[in-house]
Amino acid sequence: MSQQTTIRKLAELVNTPVEKLLEQLAEAGMKFSGPDQVVTSIEKVKLLGFLKRSHGKADKPAETDEAAKKITLNRSRKQEITVGGGKNRTTVDVVVRKKVTLVKPNDGPMSPSDERADILRKLEESKQRNLAEQEKLAADDKRRADAAAAVRQAAEDAARAKAEEELKLKLADASAVAPSVGDAPTAATPAAVRKPAPTHGHGHPKPPAPATPARVDHNAPRNKTRGSHAMVAGVEDDDAANRFAGQLHLSPSDRARRTTNSRGKGGNRPQQRRSNEQARSGGGQHGFSRPTAPIVRDVAIGDTVTVADLAQKLALKGGDVVKALFKMGVMATINQSIDFDTAALVTEELGHTVVRTNANAAEDALIAHAEEVQGEKVARPPVVTIMGHVDHGKTSLLDYIRRTKVASGEAGGITQHIGAYHVETARGVISFLDTPGHSAFTSMRARGAKLTDIVVLVVAADDGVMPQTREAVQHAKAAGVPLIVAINKIDKSGADPLRVKNELLAEEVVAEDFGGDTQMVELSAKTGDGVDDLLDAISLQAEVLELRAVPVGRAIGTVIESSLDKGRGPVATVLVQQGQLKKGDYLVCGVQYGRVRALFDETGKQVEEAGPSIPVQVLGLSGVPDAGDDFVVVEDERLAKDVAQQRDAKRRESRLVAAAGNRMEDIMAQMGKGEGQLSLNLVIKADVQGSVEALRQALVALSNDQIRINVISSGVGGITESDANAAATAKATVIGFNVRADASARRIIEGNGVDLRYFSIIYDVIDQVKQVASGILGVEIREEIIGIAEVRDVFRSSKFGAVAGCMVVEGVVKRSKPIRVLRDNAVVFEGELESLRRFKENVDEVRNGTECGIGVKAYNDVKPGDQIECFERIEVQRTL
User: Fold this and answer.
1) Which of 89, 151, 393, 808 is the most exposed place for a label (fewest CB within 10 A)?
2) Which PANTHER family match (predicted)?
3) Residue 490 marked in a binding site
4) Domains contained in the chain, CATH given
5) 393 is in an annotated binding site
């Protein structure tokens, strides 16, 4: 037992008082003098047997002992069964009883002496087993120690024999090289052979290479090697040279070789790890060595750079650069931008050289890349833009030319985005751009005028020149493109082409009939009359312009329209102006870039390439580009990505600067205004980029001094979860123009009560926003004067006090309305009527030119010549 048990401890274990336990031990024949004496296991067993006998287990009669060896089990189970059927059916209880008797085998009782002998026998067997195991372990340890000693001795003998052999070979070589030296010994004694050791050549002995042992016992004690100063065990004292040979002043290569070969395959893992760390830290032949001189870097810095980027270029911590700036008197944080001069000063202060980079390096490379497009120019199809007022027949005219029905598919029958088509006519290929005529799409018309070669201005003969007609003329003049006027709807009864020509004179558009240079063609898009004349005029104008382009090489063009398709991703409709756009080309488009994955024409058919003046849809861009952005095909994706990122950074900086300026302007503008201006927040999502621009401009233009329309977010594509969260946070109204909200966005909109409205016609958007803004403005209380009575005389009454005899000189005076008493056109009292009488009768109202008596409530200072003004308060809904 690992711990002896005293009587006191045994009493605590069995929860018995110490005195009682001593008495029981004494009764069992074991005398103990005190509670601190040790109780053995044999004595415990003896006490247990005595207690069992004293409790009567061994003194029972034979009947009781026999009964204790027999167990009887009784079990009963009750069931119900149905006997008979119909009316004679009865239920009978069935009880099943079972009795089982189990008898214990007859074993004679064991006497106390037999119990003691059995316990002693078991203890003796346990001792013998423990002794045998200890002897076996000792024999194993001795065998392993002898094997390890034998292995060490064999390794030392092999090393010593190898060293003596090498020494003999070197002595033989030396005697062969210098045979004339007579004093050199011809033989060496065994002691002389064993004492010297081979050296490195600079006086230090070279250690012997120990042989690799076949088996190494990991439990045997090992020699620990620390650095190059190792203690060698198992060598006699007289072998001091071998014991310390080669341990001091090793070269790095020798130390690495010694560390690598000292253990072989049987080496332990810690020493292998230590040698690997030593090799990584520079102990090996090809290890890293610390630089002896500071590293000077050439740091490329642009016009501005953030402190974090500068620290990364300097390979320093951001805090070190901030500290250097603080020492120079510049208080800048790690995320703050600093100019080139400040960055150059701190870079030179830290010991590096500055190289100024060109901020437009990527743009310059792109320009040089684009200038490489050279070749022979050939004639290209003209790009014709159809412009004009809404509902003047632009799309219908294009439908007749294309022999398709586009207008029937437009929402509301009006065009709401630029449609790009190329048509093969009898006079060649012509590319058409159909622009919207609604007033909200000014930016689209301006963009169409810049992209085009010829502008066809459609004017309805029965409607004349309208505001968007004048705007289209201005856009064409600003773009410097020739203008052809198509006078449409001449088949209608009220058509007056001469009126159109006269009204265009005011816009400095002079027809050829009047001596000008503008071609005007009368036609009907419904019947087709005059359409061929229009195509002839376009072809004639194109020949005069001599439109030419390079049909081969890298393509250059402009984005006409862009959208976000749920299945295809960003889709851009582009117009190729130079070169040839092919599938697989890398292109940069504004702040977006990508590789052309697919090209589609206006009918949805996939094409492999597109030449000059051909509009196509491009798939594969990284994002939705802005309408009007130029695109350029580049050689690789790296240049496209660099240019796009550089443009994005410039746009972000300009947007931040513009936002800061707008904030200052807003502050200055609000200084003279009160806090009464309300705000209506909107989130606009549309199907194409042009519609987003048009909606944003049209809705923001509704702002006035009373309410400000604030578009907090706008974009292309469906209404997403982020849009719904932004609207819920800003309490904004979500406008979906030809788009819908997804399931997650609908859950957020319904949960937060966000106002969501879908539209497909821009008229409805503007009208609905006006209604929402009017609801925010609320109602205005206005006072309207309905009548004036002049006081002719004043009578005193005991009941009403002063009663004014009046003549109604204007309007009508009503008893239920409030009044004001005017004296010399100044208000002296404001209240209400107490009585209004005509002769002796109370009346509700008195009209103009009628006399009456008026009692003013709580006012008795009415004098002749005063005027009593009767008015009413009305609520007027505020509108934009």
Assistant:
1) 89
2) TR-TYPE G DOMAIN-CONTAINING PROTEIN (PTHR43381:SF5), TRANSLATION INITIATION FACTOR IF-2-RELATED (PTHR43381)
3) yes
4) 7-54 (no CATH), 298-356 (1.10.10), 381-546 (3.40.50.300), 550-659 (2.40.30.10), 676-777 (3.40.50.10050), 780-877 (2.40.30.10)
5) yes
